[in-house]
TrEMBL record:
Signal peptide, first to last residue: 1-35
Keywords linked to the UniProt accession: Carbohydrate metabolism, Glycosidase, Hydrolase, Polysaccharide degradation, Signal
UniProt keyword Signal present: yes
Keyword Signal: yes
Gene3D superfamilies linked: Galactose-binding domain-like, Glycosidases, Immunoglobulins
The Fibronectin type-III domain, residue ranges: 181-262
Family: Belongs to the glycosyl hydrolase 18 family. Chitinase class II subfamily.
Name of this protein: chitinase
Domain GH18, chain residue ranges per copy: 275-609
Enzyme class: hydrolase
One Gene Ontology term of the molecular function aspect: hydrolase activity
Lineage: superkingdom: Bacteria
Length: 609
Protein backbone atom coordinates (compact mmCIF):
# COMPACT_ATOMS: atom_id res chain seq x y z
CA UNK A 1 0.00 0.00 0.00
CA UNK A 2 2.96 2.32 0.07
CA UNK A 3 2.53 5.35 -2.15
CA UNK A 4 5.38 7.47 -3.33
CA UNK A 5 3.64 10.21 -5.33
CA UNK A 6 0.66 12.55 -5.32
CA UNK A 7 -2.84 11.16 -5.92
CA UNK A 8 -4.10 10.69 -9.45
CA UNK A 9 -6.71 13.40 -9.14
CA UNK A 10 -3.87 15.96 -9.09
CA UNK A 11 -2.19 14.60 -12.22
CA UNK A 12 -1.83 16.06 -15.66
CA UNK A 13 -2.28 19.69 -16.62
CA UNK A 14 -4.05 20.63 -13.40
CA UNK A 15 -1.10 19.49 -11.31
CA UNK A 16 1.40 21.21 -13.57
CA UNK A 17 -0.58 24.43 -13.51
CA UNK A 18 -0.96 24.33 -9.73
CA UNK A 19 2.72 23.62 -9.26
CA UNK A 20 3.63 26.56 -11.51
CA UNK A 21 1.52 28.87 -9.40
CA UNK A 22 3.13 27.59 -6.25
CA UNK A 23 6.65 28.17 -7.50
CA UNK A 24 5.93 31.49 -9.11
CA UNK A 25 3.88 33.09 -6.41
CA UNK A 26 4.85 31.26 -3.24
CA UNK A 27 1.15 30.58 -2.64
CA UNK A 28 -1.04 27.54 -3.32
CA UNK A 29 -4.06 29.75 -4.02
CA UNK A 30 -4.86 33.41 -3.78
CA UNK A 31 -7.67 34.54 -1.49
CA UNK A 32 -9.29 37.80 -0.52
CA UNK A 33 -8.17 39.30 2.75
CA UNK A 34 -10.33 38.47 5.76
CA UNK A 35 -12.49 41.21 7.17
CA UNK A 36 -11.00 43.11 10.09
CA UNK A 37 -13.65 41.82 12.45
CA UNK A 38 -13.02 38.18 11.57
CA UNK A 39 -11.41 36.04 14.25
CA UNK A 40 -8.82 33.29 14.00
CA UNK A 41 -10.91 30.25 14.86
CA UNK A 42 -8.16 27.61 14.77
CA UNK A 43 -7.22 26.34 18.20
CA UNK A 44 -3.49 26.25 18.96
CA UNK A 45 -2.59 26.90 15.32
CA UNK A 46 0.99 27.76 16.32
CA UNK A 47 1.39 24.50 18.28
CA UNK A 48 2.70 26.46 21.25
CA UNK A 49 0.52 24.26 23.49
CA UNK A 50 1.79 21.00 22.01
CA UNK A 51 -0.85 19.05 20.13
CA UNK A 52 -3.71 20.42 22.23
CA UNK A 53 -6.80 20.60 20.02
CA UNK A 54 -5.24 18.47 17.28
CA UNK A 55 -5.70 14.80 16.39
CA UNK A 56 -2.98 13.13 14.31
CA UNK A 57 -3.37 9.76 12.59
CA UNK A 58 -0.88 6.95 13.05
CA UNK A 59 0.74 8.54 16.08
CA UNK A 60 2.99 10.40 13.65
CA UNK A 61 2.49 13.94 14.98
CA UNK A 62 4.90 15.70 17.33
CA UNK A 63 5.81 19.26 18.33
CA UNK A 64 9.39 20.41 17.69
CA UNK A 65 11.37 23.52 18.52
CA UNK A 66 13.16 23.66 15.18
CA UNK A 67 12.44 24.51 12.46
CA UNK A 68 9.69 26.97 13.39
CA UNK A 69 8.02 29.75 11.43
CA UNK A 70 6.83 31.78 14.38
CA UNK A 71 6.98 31.41 18.14
CA UNK A 72 8.89 28.53 19.64
CA UNK A 73 7.07 25.44 18.31
CA UNK A 74 5.89 23.82 15.09
CA UNK A 75 4.25 20.57 14.03
CA UNK A 76 6.34 17.72 12.67
CA UNK A 77 4.33 14.82 11.26
CA UNK A 78 5.80 11.71 9.66
CA UNK A 79 3.90 9.54 7.14
CA UNK A 80 4.49 5.81 7.69
CA UNK A 81 3.42 2.91 5.52
CA UNK A 82 -0.20 3.48 4.50
CA UNK A 83 -0.69 6.49 6.82
CA UNK A 84 -0.30 10.05 5.50
CA UNK A 85 0.11 11.63 8.99
CA UNK A 86 -2.98 13.81 8.86
CA UNK A 87 -3.44 16.23 11.76
CA UNK A 88 -6.88 17.80 12.08
CA UNK A 89 -9.34 19.63 14.31
CA UNK A 90 -13.03 20.46 14.12
CA UNK A 91 -13.99 24.14 14.28
CA UNK A 92 -17.38 25.75 14.90
CA UNK A 93 -18.46 28.06 12.05
CA UNK A 94 -21.49 29.99 10.83
CA UNK A 95 -23.66 28.88 7.90
CA UNK A 96 -23.43 30.74 4.57
CA UNK A 97 -20.12 32.36 5.50
CA UNK A 98 -16.72 32.72 3.84
CA UNK A 99 -13.53 31.52 5.51
CA UNK A 100 -9.83 31.73 4.74
CA UNK A 101 -7.59 28.83 5.74
CA UNK A 102 -3.84 29.40 5.82
CA UNK A 103 -0.69 27.66 7.10
CA UNK A 104 3.08 27.78 6.69
CA UNK A 105 4.61 24.45 5.68
CA UNK A 106 7.87 22.72 4.81
CA UNK A 107 8.36 19.40 3.04
CA UNK A 108 7.34 17.41 -0.02
CA UNK A 109 3.68 16.99 -0.94
CA UNK A 110 2.26 18.87 2.03
CA UNK A 111 -1.49 19.40 1.98
CA UNK A 112 -3.85 21.85 3.67
CA UNK A 113 -7.61 21.52 3.46
CA UNK A 114 -11.09 21.68 4.94
CA UNK A 115 -13.88 19.06 4.86
CA UNK A 116 -17.49 19.06 5.90
CA UNK A 117 -18.01 22.56 4.49
CA UNK A 118 -21.49 21.83 3.21
CA UNK A 119 -20.51 23.15 -0.21
CA UNK A 120 -17.30 22.17 -1.98
CA UNK A 121 -14.56 20.83 0.27
CA UNK A 122 -11.19 22.36 -0.51
CA UNK A 123 -7.55 21.41 -0.35
CA UNK A 124 -4.29 22.84 -1.63
CA UNK A 125 -0.76 21.46 -1.67
CA UNK A 126 2.84 22.05 -2.49
CA UNK A 127 5.03 19.49 -4.29
CA UNK A 128 8.19 20.73 -2.61
CA UNK A 129 8.85 23.40 0.01
CA UNK A 130 12.49 23.42 1.08
CA UNK A 131 11.83 26.48 3.26
CA UNK A 132 8.70 27.83 4.88
CA UNK A 133 5.97 28.32 2.29
CA UNK A 134 2.44 29.60 2.88
CA UNK A 135 -0.56 27.63 1.67
CA UNK A 136 -3.89 29.45 1.52
CA UNK A 137 -7.38 28.53 0.36
CA UNK A 138 -10.92 29.78 0.90
CA UNK A 139 -14.32 28.16 1.15
CA UNK A 140 -17.92 29.05 1.86
CA UNK A 141 -20.05 27.08 4.30
CA UNK A 142 -23.41 25.61 3.41
CA UNK A 143 -26.79 26.82 4.61
CA UNK A 144 -26.85 24.35 7.49
CA UNK A 145 -23.14 23.98 8.22
CA UNK A 146 -22.10 24.73 11.81
CA UNK A 147 -18.70 23.00 11.92
CA UNK A 148 -15.88 22.06 9.58
CA UNK A 149 -12.75 19.96 9.90
CA UNK A 150 -9.45 21.60 8.96
CA UNK A 151 -6.39 19.47 8.34
CA UNK A 152 -2.87 19.19 7.06
CA UNK A 153 -1.12 16.02 5.92
CA UNK A 154 1.82 14.66 3.98
CA UNK A 155 1.90 11.88 1.44
CA UNK A 156 2.56 8.14 1.57
CA UNK A 157 6.21 7.14 1.59
CA UNK A 158 7.54 10.70 1.90
CA UNK A 159 9.68 12.12 4.73
CA UNK A 160 8.31 14.16 7.63
CA UNK A 161 6.64 17.48 6.90
CA UNK A 162 6.35 20.60 9.10
CA UNK A 163 3.46 23.02 9.65
CA UNK A 164 3.16 26.18 11.73
CA UNK A 165 0.97 29.24 12.26
CA UNK A 166 -2.17 27.61 10.88
CA UNK A 167 -5.18 29.92 10.94
CA UNK A 168 -8.83 29.90 9.97
CA UNK A 169 -10.31 33.38 9.73
CA UNK A 170 -13.97 34.21 9.39
CA UNK A 171 -17.05 34.75 11.54
CA UNK A 172 -17.11 32.62 14.66
CA UNK A 173 -19.93 30.13 14.98
CA UNK A 174 -22.48 30.05 17.74
CA UNK A 175 -21.55 27.73 20.61
CA UNK A 176 -23.00 24.28 20.08
CA UNK A 177 -24.86 22.82 23.04
CA UNK A 178 -24.72 19.18 23.99
CA UNK A 179 -27.75 17.30 22.66
CA UNK A 180 -30.36 16.01 25.05
CA UNK A 181 -30.42 12.36 26.04
CA UNK A 182 -32.43 10.18 23.63
CA UNK A 183 -35.67 8.67 24.88
CA UNK A 184 -37.72 5.56 24.27
CA UNK A 185 -34.86 3.06 23.93
CA UNK A 186 -36.23 -0.44 23.35
CA UNK A 187 -35.19 -3.79 21.95
CA UNK A 188 -37.22 -4.19 18.76
CA UNK A 189 -36.19 -7.76 17.88
CA UNK A 190 -33.68 -10.43 18.90
CA UNK A 191 -32.03 -13.44 17.31
CA UNK A 192 -29.56 -15.93 18.71
CA UNK A 193 -26.68 -13.57 17.88
CA UNK A 194 -28.13 -10.05 17.57
CA UNK A 195 -30.39 -7.44 19.16
CA UNK A 196 -32.16 -4.75 17.15
CA UNK A 197 -32.55 -1.46 19.05
CA UNK A 198 -34.61 1.66 18.35
CA UNK A 199 -35.08 4.99 20.13
CA UNK A 200 -36.51 8.48 19.71
CA UNK A 201 -34.06 11.04 18.37
CA UNK A 202 -33.22 14.36 19.95
CA UNK A 203 -32.87 17.85 18.51
CA UNK A 204 -29.31 18.93 17.80
CA UNK A 205 -27.90 15.41 17.54
CA UNK A 206 -25.80 14.51 14.53
CA UNK A 207 -25.26 10.89 15.57
CA UNK A 208 -25.71 8.31 18.30
CA UNK A 209 -23.35 6.00 20.17
CA UNK A 210 -24.62 2.58 21.20
CA UNK A 211 -23.19 0.95 24.33
CA UNK A 212 -23.28 -2.70 25.35
CA UNK A 213 -22.44 -3.34 28.97
CA UNK A 214 -20.96 0.17 29.21
CA UNK A 215 -18.66 -0.28 26.18
CA UNK A 216 -19.31 1.62 22.95
CA UNK A 217 -19.94 -0.87 20.16
CA UNK A 218 -21.60 1.18 17.40
CA UNK A 219 -21.89 4.74 16.12
CA UNK A 220 -24.84 5.50 13.83
CA UNK A 221 -26.57 8.53 12.36
CA UNK A 222 -30.14 7.18 12.54
CA UNK A 223 -32.38 6.17 15.44
CA UNK A 224 -31.95 2.40 15.18
CA UNK A 225 -29.10 -0.07 15.24
CA UNK A 226 -28.50 -3.81 15.34
CA UNK A 227 -25.80 -5.13 17.65
CA UNK A 228 -24.42 -8.41 16.29
CA UNK A 229 -21.87 -11.00 17.34
CA UNK A 230 -23.70 -11.95 20.54
CA UNK A 231 -23.91 -15.29 22.29
CA UNK A 232 -27.18 -17.26 22.28
CA UNK A 233 -29.44 -17.32 25.34
CA UNK A 234 -27.52 -14.47 26.97
CA UNK A 235 -28.78 -11.26 28.60
CA UNK A 236 -27.17 -7.99 27.51
CA UNK A 237 -27.68 -4.40 28.64
CA UNK A 238 -27.73 -1.51 26.17
CA UNK A 239 -27.62 2.28 26.38
CA UNK A 240 -27.59 5.04 23.77
CA UNK A 241 -26.13 8.57 23.85
CA UNK A 242 -26.62 11.41 21.36
CA UNK A 243 -23.59 13.18 19.86
CA UNK A 244 -22.69 16.38 18.03
CA UNK A 245 -19.62 18.58 17.70
CA UNK A 246 -19.94 19.65 21.35
CA UNK A 247 -19.63 16.09 22.61
CA UNK A 248 -21.87 13.34 23.89
CA UNK A 249 -25.09 13.51 25.91
CA UNK A 250 -25.75 11.50 29.02
CA UNK A 251 -26.60 7.87 28.29
CA UNK A 252 -30.13 6.55 28.40
CA UNK A 253 -31.22 4.22 31.15
CA UNK A 254 -30.07 0.69 30.41
CA UNK A 255 -32.38 -1.67 28.54
CA UNK A 256 -31.85 -5.42 28.92
CA UNK A 257 -32.48 -7.89 26.11
CA UNK A 258 -31.85 -11.64 25.97
CA UNK A 259 -30.81 -13.37 22.77
CA UNK A 260 -32.77 -16.41 21.65
CA UNK A 261 -31.50 -19.98 21.88
CA UNK A 262 -29.02 -20.87 19.17
CA UNK A 263 -29.76 -23.39 16.45
CA UNK A 264 -26.25 -24.80 16.43
CA UNK A 265 -24.84 -22.37 13.89
CA UNK A 266 -21.93 -20.09 14.43
CA UNK A 267 -19.83 -22.66 16.24
CA UNK A 268 -21.88 -23.52 19.31
CA UNK A 269 -23.08 -26.78 17.78
CA UNK A 270 -19.75 -27.77 16.28
CA UNK A 271 -18.77 -29.96 19.23
CA UNK A 272 -15.42 -28.31 19.81
CA UNK A 273 -13.78 -28.19 23.23
CA UNK A 274 -13.85 -24.87 25.08
CA UNK A 275 -10.27 -24.23 23.94
CA UNK A 276 -9.30 -25.79 20.63
CA UNK A 277 -6.04 -26.29 18.75
CA UNK A 278 -6.34 -26.02 14.97
CA UNK A 279 -3.67 -27.16 12.53
CA UNK A 280 -3.18 -27.62 8.79
CA UNK A 281 -2.05 -31.03 7.57
CA UNK A 282 -0.03 -31.11 4.33
CA UNK A 283 -2.07 -33.84 2.69
CA UNK A 284 -1.78 -33.13 -1.03
CA UNK A 285 1.88 -32.10 -1.22
CA UNK A 286 5.23 -32.39 0.52
CA UNK A 287 7.74 -29.79 1.58
CA UNK A 288 10.72 -29.52 3.90
CA UNK A 289 8.65 -30.51 6.93
CA UNK A 290 7.96 -34.01 5.65
CA UNK A 291 4.71 -35.88 5.10
CA UNK A 292 2.58 -36.82 8.13
CA UNK A 293 0.02 -39.60 7.79
CA UNK A 294 -3.44 -38.90 9.17
CA UNK A 295 -3.12 -41.72 11.69
CA UNK A 296 0.09 -40.16 13.02
CA UNK A 297 -1.41 -36.72 13.78
CA UNK A 298 -0.95 -36.21 17.56
CA UNK A 299 -4.04 -36.13 19.76
CA UNK A 300 -3.42 -32.48 20.70
CA UNK A 301 -5.04 -31.32 17.46
CA UNK A 302 -8.79 -30.70 17.76
CA UNK A 303 -9.39 -29.44 14.21
CA UNK A 304 -7.38 -30.86 11.29
CA UNK A 305 -7.52 -28.88 8.04
CA UNK A 306 -6.59 -30.86 4.94
CA UNK A 307 -4.33 -28.68 2.80
CA UNK A 308 -5.48 -28.12 0.13
CA UNK A 309 -8.42 -28.43 -2.22
CA UNK A 310 -7.54 -26.41 -5.33
CA UNK A 311 -9.47 -25.33 -8.44
CA UNK A 312 -8.97 -26.72 -11.92
CA UNK A 313 -8.60 -23.08 -12.99
CA UNK A 314 -8.82 -19.75 -11.19
CA UNK A 315 -12.40 -19.05 -12.30
CA UNK A 316 -13.84 -22.55 -12.73
CA UNK A 317 -15.04 -23.04 -9.15
CA UNK A 318 -14.33 -26.75 -9.67
CA UNK A 319 -12.35 -27.86 -6.60
CA UNK A 320 -10.27 -31.04 -6.55
CA UNK A 321 -8.45 -32.84 -3.73
CA UNK A 322 -6.12 -35.82 -3.84
CA UNK A 323 -3.47 -37.28 -1.61
CA UNK A 324 0.18 -36.47 -2.17
CA UNK A 325 1.68 -38.58 -5.00
CA UNK A 326 3.93 -41.46 -3.93
CA UNK A 327 6.76 -39.98 -6.00
CA UNK A 328 6.61 -36.87 -3.83
CA UNK A 329 5.59 -38.48 -0.53
CA UNK A 330 6.98 -42.05 -0.32
CA UNK A 331 5.25 -42.70 3.03
CA UNK A 332 1.79 -41.57 1.91
CA UNK A 333 -1.05 -43.89 2.99
CA UNK A 334 -3.65 -45.34 0.63
CA UNK A 335 -6.98 -43.57 0.17
CA UNK A 336 -8.69 -46.31 2.18
CA UNK A 337 -6.21 -45.94 5.05
CA UNK A 338 -6.61 -42.17 4.94
CA UNK A 339 -10.39 -42.38 5.17
CA UNK A 340 -10.20 -44.93 7.99
CA UNK A 341 -7.84 -42.66 9.92
CA UNK A 342 -10.25 -39.75 9.48
CA UNK A 343 -13.05 -41.83 10.99
CA UNK A 344 -10.79 -42.75 13.90
CA UNK A 345 -10.00 -39.10 14.55
CA UNK A 346 -13.69 -38.23 14.45
CA UNK A 347 -14.48 -41.04 16.86
CA UNK A 348 -11.98 -39.42 19.24
CA UNK A 349 -13.87 -36.11 18.99
CA UNK A 350 -11.68 -34.44 16.37
CA UNK A 351 -12.96 -32.44 13.39
CA UNK A 352 -11.47 -32.90 9.93
CA UNK A 353 -12.13 -30.25 7.29
CA UNK A 354 -11.18 -29.63 3.69
CA UNK A 355 -9.28 -26.36 3.34
CA UNK A 356 -9.81 -24.62 0.00
CA UNK A 357 -7.23 -22.29 -1.50
CA UNK A 358 -3.87 -21.70 0.11
CA UNK A 359 -1.04 -19.69 -1.36
CA UNK A 360 -1.21 -21.34 -4.78
CA UNK A 361 -4.93 -22.16 -5.02
CA UNK A 362 -6.49 -18.94 -6.33
CA UNK A 363 -10.30 -19.20 -6.39
CA UNK A 364 -12.50 -16.54 -8.01
CA UNK A 365 -16.22 -17.33 -8.12
CA UNK A 366 -16.94 -14.58 -10.63
CA UNK A 367 -20.01 -16.26 -12.15
CA UNK A 368 -23.02 -18.17 -10.86
CA UNK A 369 -21.77 -21.16 -12.85
CA UNK A 370 -18.51 -21.08 -10.88
CA UNK A 371 -20.52 -20.72 -7.67
CA UNK A 372 -22.58 -23.81 -8.47
CA UNK A 373 -19.49 -25.79 -9.50
CA UNK A 374 -17.90 -24.84 -6.16
CA UNK A 375 -20.88 -26.15 -4.19
CA UNK A 376 -21.02 -29.37 -6.20
CA UNK A 377 -17.30 -30.16 -6.13
CA UNK A 378 -16.77 -29.26 -2.46
CA UNK A 379 -19.78 -31.39 -1.53
CA UNK A 380 -18.23 -34.29 -3.43
CA UNK A 381 -14.98 -33.99 -1.47
CA UNK A 382 -16.79 -33.74 1.87
CA UNK A 383 -18.92 -36.78 1.05
CA UNK A 384 -16.10 -38.90 -0.34
CA UNK A 385 -13.87 -38.47 2.72
CA UNK A 386 -16.62 -38.12 5.31
CA UNK A 387 -15.44 -34.66 6.42
CA UNK A 388 -16.94 -32.37 9.06
CA UNK A 389 -16.88 -29.13 7.11
CA UNK A 390 -14.99 -26.47 5.22
CA UNK A 391 -12.10 -24.08 5.80
CA UNK A 392 -11.85 -21.05 3.50
CA UNK A 393 -8.22 -20.08 2.98
CA UNK A 394 -8.57 -17.74 0.01
CA UNK A 395 -5.33 -15.80 -0.46
CA UNK A 396 -3.62 -13.70 -3.10
CA UNK A 397 -6.11 -12.34 -5.63
CA UNK A 398 -9.01 -14.65 -4.86
CA UNK A 399 -11.02 -11.89 -3.18
CA UNK A 400 -11.10 -8.22 -4.17
CA UNK A 401 -13.76 -5.53 -4.29
CA UNK A 402 -15.01 -3.78 -7.39
CA UNK A 403 -14.75 0.00 -7.50
CA UNK A 404 -17.86 1.46 -5.89
CA UNK A 405 -18.43 -1.53 -3.60
CA UNK A 406 -17.94 0.44 -0.38
CA UNK A 407 -20.28 -1.09 2.23
CA UNK A 408 -19.23 -4.42 3.72
CA UNK A 409 -22.82 -4.94 4.92
CA UNK A 410 -24.20 -4.93 1.37
CA UNK A 411 -21.51 -6.23 -1.01
CA UNK A 412 -22.08 -6.12 -4.76
CA UNK A 413 -18.87 -7.65 -6.15
CA UNK A 414 -19.67 -11.03 -7.80
CA UNK A 415 -16.71 -12.97 -6.31
CA UNK A 416 -17.85 -11.89 -2.84
CA UNK A 417 -21.59 -12.38 -3.35
CA UNK A 418 -21.13 -15.79 -4.99
CA UNK A 419 -18.80 -17.06 -2.26
CA UNK A 420 -21.30 -16.07 0.43
CA UNK A 421 -24.11 -17.76 -1.48
CA UNK A 422 -22.08 -20.94 -2.03
CA UNK A 423 -21.14 -21.30 1.63
CA UNK A 424 -24.73 -20.69 2.75
CA UNK A 425 -25.85 -23.43 0.39
CA UNK A 426 -23.30 -25.86 1.85
CA UNK A 427 -24.34 -24.92 5.38
CA UNK A 428 -28.00 -25.53 4.55
CA UNK A 429 -27.14 -28.89 2.97
CA UNK A 430 -25.13 -30.28 5.89
CA UNK A 431 -27.00 -28.62 8.75
CA UNK A 432 -26.10 -27.47 12.23
CA UNK A 433 -23.11 -29.77 12.70
CA UNK A 434 -21.32 -28.31 9.66
CA UNK A 435 -18.02 -26.76 10.78
CA UNK A 436 -17.06 -23.55 8.97
CA UNK A 437 -13.70 -21.88 9.52
CA UNK A 438 -11.78 -19.12 7.74
CA UNK A 439 -8.09 -18.25 7.63
CA UNK A 440 -7.72 -14.83 5.98
CA UNK A 441 -4.56 -12.74 6.08
CA UNK A 442 -4.48 -9.48 8.06
CA UNK A 443 -4.49 -7.53 4.78
CA UNK A 444 -8.02 -8.78 4.10
CA UNK A 445 -9.40 -8.15 7.61
CA UNK A 446 -7.69 -5.78 10.06
CA UNK A 447 -6.32 -3.52 7.33
CA UNK A 448 -10.00 -2.72 6.73
CA UNK A 449 -9.83 -0.44 9.77
CA UNK A 450 -7.92 2.00 7.56
CA UNK A 451 -8.74 1.02 3.99
CA UNK A 452 -11.60 -0.78 2.29
CA UNK A 453 -11.35 -1.83 -1.33
CA UNK A 454 -10.18 0.72 -3.84
CA UNK A 455 -11.48 3.56 -1.66
CA UNK A 456 -13.89 6.41 -2.38
CA UNK A 457 -11.70 7.79 -5.18
CA UNK A 458 -10.15 4.57 -6.43
CA UNK A 459 -6.43 3.87 -6.48
CA UNK A 460 -6.19 1.74 -3.33
CA UNK A 461 -5.54 -2.00 -3.44
CA UNK A 462 -9.03 -3.48 -4.00
CA UNK A 463 -8.20 -6.46 -1.81
CA UNK A 464 -7.94 -4.35 1.36
CA UNK A 465 -10.53 -5.59 3.84
CA UNK A 466 -12.13 -7.83 1.19
CA UNK A 467 -12.85 -10.68 3.64
CA UNK A 468 -14.99 -8.43 5.86
CA UNK A 469 -18.24 -8.79 3.87
CA UNK A 470 -17.77 -12.57 3.77
CA UNK A 471 -17.16 -12.85 7.52
CA UNK A 472 -20.03 -10.51 8.28
CA UNK A 473 -22.57 -12.26 6.07
CA UNK A 474 -21.62 -15.68 7.46
CA UNK A 475 -21.04 -14.72 11.12
CA UNK A 476 -24.07 -16.72 12.32
CA UNK A 477 -22.73 -19.81 10.52
CA UNK A 478 -19.07 -19.25 11.36
CA UNK A 479 -17.43 -21.71 13.75
CA UNK A 480 -13.95 -20.18 13.84
CA UNK A 481 -12.08 -17.25 12.38
CA UNK A 482 -8.32 -17.63 12.71
CA UNK A 483 -6.65 -14.73 10.93
CA UNK A 484 -3.08 -15.43 9.86
CA UNK A 485 -1.03 -13.19 12.16
CA UNK A 486 2.02 -13.92 10.02
CA UNK A 487 3.45 -13.09 6.60
CA UNK A 488 2.01 -9.66 7.33
CA UNK A 489 3.13 -6.09 7.11
CA UNK A 490 2.65 -3.71 10.02
CA UNK A 491 -1.06 -3.14 10.74
CA UNK A 492 -2.72 -0.29 12.62
CA UNK A 493 -4.61 -1.32 15.76
CA UNK A 494 -7.47 0.38 17.55
CA UNK A 495 -4.90 2.51 19.39
CA UNK A 496 -4.06 4.05 15.98
CA UNK A 497 -0.51 2.74 16.30
CA UNK A 498 1.20 0.33 13.92
CA UNK A 499 1.96 -3.15 15.23
CA UNK A 500 4.45 -5.59 13.74
CA UNK A 501 4.32 -9.37 13.75
CA UNK A 502 6.51 -11.63 15.84
CA UNK A 503 5.60 -10.53 19.37
CA UNK A 504 2.69 -10.66 21.80
CA UNK A 505 1.73 -7.06 21.04
CA UNK A 506 0.80 -7.87 17.43
CA UNK A 507 -1.47 -10.78 18.35
CA UNK A 508 -3.10 -8.81 21.18
CA UNK A 509 -3.87 -5.80 18.97
CA UNK A 510 -5.10 -7.85 16.00
CA UNK A 511 -7.32 -10.09 18.15
CA UNK A 512 -8.71 -7.17 20.14
CA UNK A 513 -10.01 -5.71 16.87
CA UNK A 514 -12.01 -8.87 16.15
CA UNK A 515 -13.44 -9.07 19.66
CA UNK A 516 -14.49 -5.42 19.98
CA UNK A 517 -15.29 -4.54 16.35
CA UNK A 518 -14.06 -1.53 14.41
CA UNK A 519 -15.21 1.18 12.00
CA UNK A 520 -14.39 0.13 8.45
CA UNK A 521 -12.09 2.61 6.68
CA UNK A 522 -12.57 4.88 9.69
CA UNK A 523 -16.29 5.36 8.94
CA UNK A 524 -18.15 5.26 12.26
CA UNK A 525 -21.42 4.62 10.41
CA UNK A 526 -20.02 1.34 9.07
CA UNK A 527 -18.78 -0.59 12.09
CA UNK A 528 -17.74 -4.21 11.66
CA UNK A 529 -19.39 -5.83 14.71
CA UNK A 530 -17.44 -7.91 17.20
CA UNK A 531 -17.27 -11.67 16.88
CA UNK A 532 -17.94 -13.90 19.87
CA UNK A 533 -14.79 -15.02 21.68
CA UNK A 534 -15.59 -18.68 20.99
CA UNK A 535 -15.47 -17.84 17.26
CA UNK A 536 -11.92 -16.47 17.39
CA UNK A 537 -8.55 -18.22 17.41
CA UNK A 538 -5.11 -16.70 16.85
CA UNK A 539 -3.20 -17.90 13.78
CA UNK A 540 0.60 -18.32 14.05
CA UNK A 541 3.42 -20.21 12.31
CA UNK A 542 4.58 -23.32 14.16
CA UNK A 543 8.28 -22.68 13.58
CA UNK A 544 10.72 -20.25 12.00
CA UNK A 545 10.61 -22.36 8.82
CA UNK A 546 6.81 -22.21 8.57
CA UNK A 547 6.47 -18.50 7.81
CA UNK A 548 7.49 -14.97 8.67
CA UNK A 549 6.26 -13.81 12.04
CA UNK A 550 7.26 -16.77 14.18
CA UNK A 551 6.36 -16.02 17.80
CA UNK A 552 8.17 -17.71 20.68
CA UNK A 553 6.14 -19.76 23.19
CA UNK A 554 6.80 -17.12 25.86
CA UNK A 555 5.31 -14.39 23.67
CA UNK A 556 2.33 -16.59 22.73
CA UNK A 557 1.69 -17.11 26.45
CA UNK A 558 1.84 -13.35 27.02
CA UNK A 559 -0.74 -12.79 24.30
CA UNK A 560 -3.07 -15.40 25.78
CA UNK A 561 -2.63 -13.98 29.28
CA UNK A 562 -3.51 -10.49 28.11
CA UNK A 563 -6.57 -11.50 26.10
CA UNK A 564 -8.01 -14.01 28.57
CA UNK A 565 -6.78 -12.64 31.94
CA UNK A 566 -5.85 -8.96 31.33
CA UNK A 567 -2.28 -9.75 32.39
CA UNK A 568 1.08 -9.34 30.59
CA UNK A 569 -0.52 -6.83 28.20
CA UNK A 570 2.54 -4.67 27.65
CA UNK A 571 1.94 -1.35 25.88
CA UNK A 572 -1.38 -2.22 24.22
CA UNK A 573 -4.53 -1.70 26.29
CA UNK A 574 -7.24 -4.18 25.29
CA UNK A 575 -10.89 -3.19 25.28
CA UNK A 576 -12.00 -6.21 27.28
CA UNK A 577 -11.07 -9.61 28.69
CA UNK A 578 -12.18 -12.80 26.95
CA UNK A 579 -11.58 -16.02 28.90
CA UNK A 580 -13.73 -17.78 26.29
CA UNK A 581 -11.24 -17.15 23.47
CA UNK A 582 -11.37 -20.40 21.51
CA UNK A 583 -7.66 -21.02 21.06
CA UNK A 584 -4.85 -21.15 18.52
CA UNK A 585 -4.33 -22.12 14.89
CA UNK A 586 -1.03 -22.91 13.24
CA UNK A 587 0.59 -23.54 9.93
CA UNK A 588 1.14 -26.37 10.29
CA UNK A 589 0.88 -29.76 11.99
CA UNK A 590 3.78 -30.92 9.84
CA UNK A 591 6.01 -28.00 10.78
CA UNK A 592 5.15 -28.45 14.45
CA UNK A 593 6.27 -32.10 14.32
CA UNK A 594 9.41 -30.96 12.52
CA UNK A 595 9.98 -28.54 15.42
CA UNK A 596 9.57 -31.25 18.06
CA UNK A 597 5.99 -30.24 18.88
CA UNK A 598 6.91 -26.88 20.43
CA UNK A 599 3.67 -25.17 19.41
CA UNK A 600 1.24 -27.90 20.46
CA UNK A 601 3.11 -28.57 23.71
CA UNK A 602 2.84 -24.91 24.65
CA UNK A 603 -0.91 -24.93 23.90
CA UNK A 604 -1.44 -28.07 25.99
CA UNK A 605 0.57 -26.63 28.87
CA UNK A 606 -1.45 -23.40 28.83
CA UNK A 607 -4.93 -24.85 28.50
CA UNK A 608 -4.25 -28.10 30.37
CA UNK A 609 -4.51 -30.38 27.38
Amino acid sequence: MERTGPPARFSGLLAAFSAALLVAGGLAASAPAAAAADADLARNGGFEAGLDGWSCTGGGGAVVSTPVHGGTSALKATPAGSDNAQCSQTVTVKPDSTYTLSAWVQGSYVYLGASGTGTTDVSTWTPSATGWQQLTTTFRTGAATTSVTIYTHGWYGTPAYYADDLSLTGPGGDPVALPATPTGLKAAATTSSSVALSWTGTTGATGYNVYRGGTKVLSVTGTSATVSGLAASTAYSFQVAATNSAGESAKTAAVTATTTAGGGGGGDGAGLPAHALVGYLHSSFANGSGYTRMADVPDSWDVIDLAFGEPTSVTSGDIRFSLCPVTECPNVESAAEFKAAIKAKQAAGKKVLISIGGQNGQVQLSTTAARDAFVSSVSKIIDEYGLDGLDIDFEGHSLSLNTGDTDFRNPTTPVIVNLISAVKTLKAKYGDTFVLTMAPETFFVQLGYQYYGSGPWGGQDPRAGAYLPVIHALRDDLTLLHVQDYNSGSIMGLDNQYHSMGGADFHIAMTDMLLIGFPVAGDTTKVFPALRPDQVSIGLPASTQAGNGYTSPAEVTKALNCLTKKADCGSYATHGTWPGLRGLMTWSINWDRFNNGEFSKNFDAYFGG
